[in-house]
Amino acid sequence: VDNVSVKVKEGELVTLLGPSGCGKTTTLRMIAGFEIPTSGKIFIDGKEVSMIPPNQRPTTMVFQNYALFPHMTVFENISYGLKIHKESAQNIKEKTEKIINLVDLEGLSKRSPAHLSGGQQQRVSLARSLIMEPKVLLLDEPLSNLDAKLRISTRLEIRKLQQRIGITSVYVTHDQEEAMTLSDRVVIMNEGKIQQIGTPQEIYAYPNNYFVADFIGNANFLTGKVHKILTSKEVEIEVKGYIFKIALHNLSFKEGDKILLLVRPEAVDLKSKIPQSITG
């Protein structure tokens, strides 16, 4: 990754989104402590953790492959971290039962992972992370092994749970719909660099560059030039001899500049021809 800088607010869910090899998982692994940055620093809750090993950081990670112990029950998998930290048997029982209820796994505590559905296994993995009460929850493409229908319902469950607990979360995915549905903010990455940070609405409506515009959603591009600057937020553009008046989110052009006009499919209305009228 190259000069990546992101500040995640307390209680926020931020998603790192981009194509394969863009650096999103490497960034997540650096936050977790599985990768050491060659330059720069990582802070969690105001404290630098750049050189602190993973087991001493206030983070837990939900992995893509769940990483459940096959020889342990649901209860034993979820409570494993508490046992490692040598908590009392009573505390382990109370905390584990509470988190089992929280992720809707009641009645399954004695089952082995082999007797659970993919969605249930994912909830066990999530519960095992949450029971440690981390300051930051890290999720590395946690839904990629689920079928399409289950992915939709599970991501909604994750979002509701995250909002209910109010836990700060960093989520990694290459699935645009997943990112736009789940996130408070999205970080678009490509070739190790951040292309844009913003809310899903900002990313979709006001892309920073061609990559973001083309990567998110469906896009039609028209080449043209700036015909006239009307106001600080309104210009006339010329596309193939036609003049259009458009509003700009951020005016950074001057008259005569070449432009690329992005038109989303839903922004186009098809109407039958109306005599003696002007549209556009």
UniProtKB/TrEMBL annotation:
Protein name as it appears in the record: ABC transporter domain-containing protein
Pfam families: ABC_tran
Gene Ontology cellular component terms for the protein in this record: plasma membrane; transmembrane transporter complex
Entry's Gene Ontology molecular function annotations: ATP binding; ATP hydrolysis activity; transmembrane transporter activity
Segments forming domain ABC transporter: 1-216
Keyword ATP-binding: yes
SMART domains in the record: AAA
Keywords: ATP-binding, Nucleotide-binding, Transport
InterPro entries membership: AAA+_ATPase, ABC_SmlMolc_Importer, ABC_transporter-like_ATP-bd, ABC_transporter-like_CS, P-loop_NTPase
